[in-house]
# Entry
Amino acid sequence: MNRYTISFLLFVMCVVSNFLHAQNYYGKSKELPLNQTKPFGWLQQVLVKQAEGLGGNPTVSGYPFNTRMWTEDIQIPVGHAGRAYWPYEQTAYFLDGTYRCGQLIKNQALVEFANQNFNHTLSHITENGILGQNKADDWARVVYFRGLMAKYEITKNQSILKKMSSHFLKTPRLFNNGRALFSIEPILWLYDKTGNEKLLNLAIHSFHKSKSASEGGEYDKAKKNDNLPSKLLDNMLSEKIPHGHGVSNMEQVKIPALLYMYTGKERYLNASINQFNKIVKHHMLVDGCPSSIEHLEGKAVDLAHETCDIIDLSWSAGYLLMATNNGHWGDLVERCIFNAGFGSMDKDFKSHQYYSAPNQPVAAEETSQFNVKLNWGGMALGRMCYRTGHDTECCTGNIQRMFPSYASRMWLKKADNSGIIAALYGSSEFNFNHKGKEIKIQQKTQYPFNERIEFRFEIEKVSKFSFTMRIPKWCSKPELYLNGKKIRKINIEKGMATIDRTFKNNDLIELQLPMETKLTAWGEKNEGFAIERGPLVYSLPVNHKIITFPYIGDPKLKDFPNKLMYPASNWNYTLDIKDITDVNVIENKLDSNTYPWSVTNSPVKIQVPAKKVLNWRLDGTKHLKKFPDKLKLSPNREYIELVPLGSTYLRMTLFPKTN
Ligand SMILES: [Zn+2]
# Structure
């Protein structure tokens, strides 16, 4: 068979399978298998660093990443805090991220590592169809199933669908207790693939019934009833300020939107949108992630967030993006990953923070106002340090998902099959099949450091489809060029611009997103200034003194030091400017091989006049103080140089207002 025959057969199979599973999909776009995207530029570089760093060397993170993960009955070490399901949740994040990372950069060792776990699970099923180790709870399985979902999308291994369906349906029960509710994500994914209405009913009834699981036996015979009352839905639709655990909130916020995608019921979608907007309004920090000292904490200028929340916010916003095709959700993902995401990790992917903050002049064991007593025993100590692993191990697993998840939502397929959306930006090559024709789009860019994004199309002959690009809200004057000719009128709908045409080989679209430099206000009373340019927030990098403390034992560990960081330069400044015209943006030409998330190699720097705040100091316990009530300023004006927050370790991002 030649490639055209194969393409044609694949096309016929697609049509047939759509016909067989005629379930309605009300979302506006869908993800495509990860291996259709090939990352380049910084995205490829950071994925390779992940593979060479914590992703490819799990044992350096210690327990539970030094176990055989989902292939073994993991024992919690004596004296170690935690619940029985935790190591499965933590390693599930790791396996999902590792599998996706391996597929994206064609690293067979990573794929193999995850596959050993997946294959073990698929071949060890209990009599009642349950997948995975006994101690794993429904929530840990939600996390783990994301890895199986990615594997299915690439391999089309039908036994995954069969076994996952059996897992959810063989033993009748509801998934409505605590985080078990998040099972609605894999259940609806399975419904999408199989068209089995029992799965849709199970998802709806799990959401609406707050009964205990034992009462749910008849759900599969029940009529689909999405008009049942739901306290959760009412709460999400209300003005009630979201509170509680950050991860639970960020995972939960997408659930009604998923139900909307398969029922078309607007009330579900509105609930997710309203809840997300409330989280942003009441808890969002300048770097794109809500405060979450485990729990949502408001908007004070000295707050931090848990690394898991960065990934969970991005993952959920990605679903909102697919539910609506509204570019706003893509803006949120980029802001969160480029700023909070890169800001939470060692740029070589060899250590990371559990809590990270826009303002962190110190990241040491005794630092931070966040050394608190934990519900499950012990103290959260040194969670702002850059470590290979932390006292609670979720973020070490979850950070493996950060960039693979970003890559998986960069390119989306329109639900009506009319074309493709470039939803999140980054250098990459994307392959897809449109009505039997193989099409390749090369995206070349140094975004988010540079304003220009180029799309070049490779097509066998010609193909008619629509090509949609996200136009970020921060950009007021976007420009589009088709084969060198400026498009005079760009139609932007919900933050998206579409070109609908018959594309031919070598067509070139250039998108210019001029990045204005802006001064923005943050904090509880807008008492802090930040400087932003495009999707990036800029920070003063604080020089650091490092004390390393490698664990003893594994010789590999000398290459993976845990770091305590103390400030070795001034950090206590306020900006001495009247308005944004007083700052000076310096763009350095970037060699495409240079990793740009680096203070020294930063492609963009912003010089700002500033004055030292003499009465703003770290006290003896090294807690970062909020801004002093009355600022005592040095008379001397200095120029400080800001770089993208994501490239810094110690930093100051919010500066106190002087009046
Ligand atoms: Zn975490």
In short: Residues 86-105 form the longest helix (20 residues). Confidence is low (pLDDT under 50) at residues 10-21, 210-223.
